[in-house]
Amino acid sequence: MPDALPLRSGDPTELGGYEILGRLGTGGQGAVFLGRPAGMPGNIPAADYVAVKLLHGGLAGDESARARFVRELEVAKRVARFCTAQVLDADVAGDQPYIVSEYVPGVSLHHVVRTDGPRTGGALERLAISTLTALTAIHQAGIIHRDFKPQNVMMGPDGPRVIDFGVARAMDAAGETQNVGTPAYMAPEHFTGGEFSTASDMFSWGTTMVFAATGRRAFGNDEMAAVMHRILNSEPDLSDLPNPMRELVEVCLAKDPAQRPTAREAQERLVGAASDASAGASPGPQPGPPP
Q1: Are both 18 and 139 inside the same structural domain?
Q2: In a domain, 262, yes or no
Q3: Do 243 and 162 share a structural domain?
């Protein structure tokens, strides 16, 4: 069975036809549990485990909280399943609103970097291209994630997955400038009342790649006011990033959203650079003429 924390007093043991086995995590909106279809005997294949997100009991009667939960479900269902945890089941109208998703084994990018150190070489390039592929699919589905960060990139056995659409919104939704997300990874427009866009996600992608490659946050890790000031007024130190990653991250961290590339443009730029590097590699030594 996958690793999970023990259930707490008051936690459900069954929900919507799923046996609840343990806790995977807790956030401001709800708790996420490890589950399996109820009534299945013995050991089950790893693919049959699920993640069950349950809205906090104190929020079940809050109409705005329920509306956000419904929006999270609708957004997650629009995103291509190859780049996130696929939604399998849900009940957002009952007394205990929940969303059941595919369980993605693995740990977050944040955990990997903190435990094993920064990503380098091919591992960094694969991470960058995979997450850009996911963002391309998310944006093509008409979704702005709004909280892209290392904690929301799950390093699954089949590659990175982008999770947690709790504050995501559709591009065609009414303009919203509420300050949501994680400050250290927010774009400048989050702090100036500007409109969120896919370019905001690209800024967050850039800061995430800085953390992945260096183990440091691009704009520091101290009090929020200082971090916000740097995001608005300073350029981060990217000297430890290899090229072409450094040049791409630099343009993704442009203060002006209009200067940032789209996820597809960034992906094509990295893939093209990798192809050019392979084509320009020096051939190995050639065999001499026969004696």
Answers
A1: no
A2: yes
A3: yes
On whether residue 7 sits in a domain, the answer given is no
158 a catalytic residue:
no
Q: What is the three-class DSSP state of 105? A: coil
Catalytic residue (choose from 89, 147, 256, 276): 147
Identify whether the C-beta of residue 73 lies closer than 8 Å to the C-beta of residue 88.
no
Distance CA 182, CA 153 (A): 14
For residue 95, CA distances in Å to 16, 98, 256 come to 11, 9, 45
Is residue 285 one of the residues assigned to a domain? no
268, amino acid identity: E
Over residues 237-256, the pLDDT tens digits come to 999 999 999 999 999 999 99
Whole-prediction pTM: 0.86
CB 104 within 8 A of CB 85: yes
The token pair at 227 is: 């971090």
Domain that holds residue 81: 14-102
* Res. 282: pLDDT tops 70: no
Q: Is 200 exposed, middle or buried (0-12, 13-18, 19+ CB in 10 A)?
A: buried
Give, rounded to a whole angstrom, the gap between the first and last alpha carbons of the chain: 63
The total of other beta-carbon atoms located within 10 Å of residue 67's CB is 11
Q: Which of 43, 73, 102 is the last residue of a domain?
A: 102
DSSP 12-34: -SEETTEEEEEEEEE-SSEEEEE
**CA–CA dist 179, 139 (Å, integer):** 20
Are residues 151 and 197 located together in one domain of the fold?
A: yes
Question: How confident is the model over 193-221, as pLDDT tens digits?
Answer: 999 999 999 999 999 999 999 999 999 99
